[in-house]
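This entry is listed below:
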Amino acid sequence: MTLGNCIEQLYVELPNHLTVVTANHENWVTEILPKIAEPQRDRLSSEIRLEGIRIEGARELITERLSAYEIDAEKITRFFADDWLQQVFTPLPELGVRALLMRAADRFQALAQPSRPPAPRQRLDALFQSEVNNVRSKKALQAYNQDCLMWFAKDIGQAISGVSAGRTSGHRYFSFEWRWPDRLVCFAFEGGDHWRRWKAVADEGLRMARGRGGRTFLAYVFRTPDLAKVPRPSWAVAKATLDEARTHGFRIVELTLDQVCDLHAARELYSDALQGNIAYSGPETLAWLQAHFATFLRELAYPPPAADVETETPAGTAEPEPAQKQQSPGPRHAELDAERLRLVLDIVREQRIVDISAVLARLGSADLRDPLLRSVEAHPNLKAHPGPKTIFLQWRITA
């Protein structure tokens, strides 16, 4: 949606210019283009799709690359020995150029060091944990992301047995659903915190619940830790509507920071697979992620019976909207106090690079992990380096 608005603004306000939008074709077709409004799509010329390379072109490209480094003809012939190139293109008639060059690089390394066995590809769980550590170390990557939540409901949700996952029609807020013959689970994606909007969301959930056609009905709205808490104590009519909606299957799902990091890391890992940046295909990466989230999916599709709803604000009280958001980051999202930060600076300055677990041990609590990372992010002399198993903290000398 944002890209579509940007395209529209460029088209209207900047005449006599050319803007080129480049994207991986799979991501463009499945994730980006559907979110651009039809009038804004009309501002784009027909796509120029870069085709893959066939075996004849692949041989020429690799030969040219090797020749550029003055590798003689005999060694180039050895490079193509044992029908290596034919095996690369079996059974596909063409490959992406990047995929071909990655395979050629592996071949070059194998020939250069024949005694060394080929390195096994990194496990998906290690790649995923590396992405989780990357998200965990950067606060900006933990912010509410509607596209990620919609991707989770759409792509990960398809793993549930017997489900039909798709967009709803005729609804303003609940835009996606999981459907079975006897069950309906709907999702709204709302990052705001205005009481009127939330009353409208709850009202729509109530209307959908009453028209469910005898099915079990559930309606979810995800919230992330960076968003203001809803409902607020000052709400009255909206809270009463929300409470009534809860008795008909409406739920606000407060995601934990751990869950947010998992979801955002999963989306990034899947995107890497689609773009050929990891040694796993999109389908096999998606299957692994679906298995990883299987428990969470079951909890959403088949939750335990809800507890009784308690109304915190008496009905009829006025609902003033505060001038600014009532949001408190809480202890897990605050930075370290001055004394603990001084200790961290002493440790990292002395060791130059150190495992975060060693620093937490000196601080005396693993629960300080997130405040520590927020302090590292804010301090000019500290930098976090995410890895597949842990996060390392490095001392940096600034000018």
